C-alpha cells in the first residue's frame, strides 16, 4: 500500500525558521492544519512544535485539536454555517465572519454556553471569495461591537484563494487603514490585522509588508517551503516535509503508442497519437495509487528519468525510459508533492500515513 510520510525534523526546521522570522518582526501567527484532515498522528506532530494557535476549516478537526491540546487557541477559518454554530462556539475560540445574522446567532450561542466568542471580520480585498465590502465595514461593525458574548479581535483578508489575486503593499496598507478607521470611529481597540498567509511571506522578506499587518496564518509555507510568487523554495527551508512512497506492481517494456480505436477514457480525457513514437518502446511501471487518491499533476517525481503518463481510479502509470536505475517489481518510487496533492492523499483512507523521525 502507498504511504504518505511526514519528516519530523524537516517540519521542525521549517517551523522554527518561520517562527524566528515572525518574532523578529513582532508578528503573531498560527498554523493552518486543514491540510492534515484531522489526522491525530500528524496533528500531534504539529502541536509538539510548541504551536499555541491552530487554524482549520472543519469543526471536527478543531474538536480533535481541543481533545489533544485544550489550551491551544483554535480558529475556524471560514464563515460559520448556521447548523454548526453550537459546535463552533464550543470548539473554536475564534472564527472568521462576514454575515451579521451569523454573528448574532454566535452571540446568542456564546451567551448560552457562558463564553466570549472572538471573531475576525474578513474584508473583501479583490479575490471575491469571503469578505465584507469595504464601503459597508463601518455600518457592519456598528451592528456587532456591542453584541454580548462577542469580541472582535481582528480584521482580515484572503488573497490568491479563488481568482488568484495576489497581495500587494497597497492592498495591505488599505487593510491596515480599515483598522484605523474602525478604531477612530468607535474608540475601540482591534488587536490584529490578519493580512498574512503563505502567499504574503515574500512581501515580508522583501520589506514591503506594512507595519500594521501583525498576524499571519501559515500552512503551505510551513509544509512545503514554497514561495507562491516565484514557485521556488524559500531559502533555508525544506520543500519535502511530505513524501509519497509507492510500490511498483507491474513493470514491463511496452509500446509508447496505444493501438486500437481511441475514445474518451473514464476521466473524459482524449489522447492524440504522436506518429514519431510508432515502433518505439519504453519501460512502464504501474504504481499502487490512483485518481481516487491524487491528481497526477500534483506529483513531483524525485527520480529524474521518470515521467507520469496518467492514472485510472486506482493505478498510476509512469514511464521509466530505458530503466537505467534497474527498478524491479516491488521496488518503491517516491514523489514530492504540491499542496493540493498532499491534501487529497491526507483525505484518502486508502493511503497509510507515517511519521519519519
From TrEMBL:
Keyword Isomerase: yes
Domain annotation Alanine racemase N-terminal: ranges: 9-225
Keywords associated with the record: Isomerase, Pyridoxal phosphate
Keyword Membrane listed: no
Secretion signal span: none
Cofactor(s) named in the record: pyridoxal 5'-phosphate
Pfam families documented for this protein: Ala_racemase_N
PANTHER family the UniProt entry points to: ALANINE RACEMASE (PTHR30511), LYSINE RACEMASE (PTHR30511:SF3)
Protein name stated in the entry: Ornithine racemase Orr
Organism: Pontibacter saemangeumensis
Upper lineage: Bacteria, Pseudomonadati, Bacteroidota, Cytophagia, Cytophagales
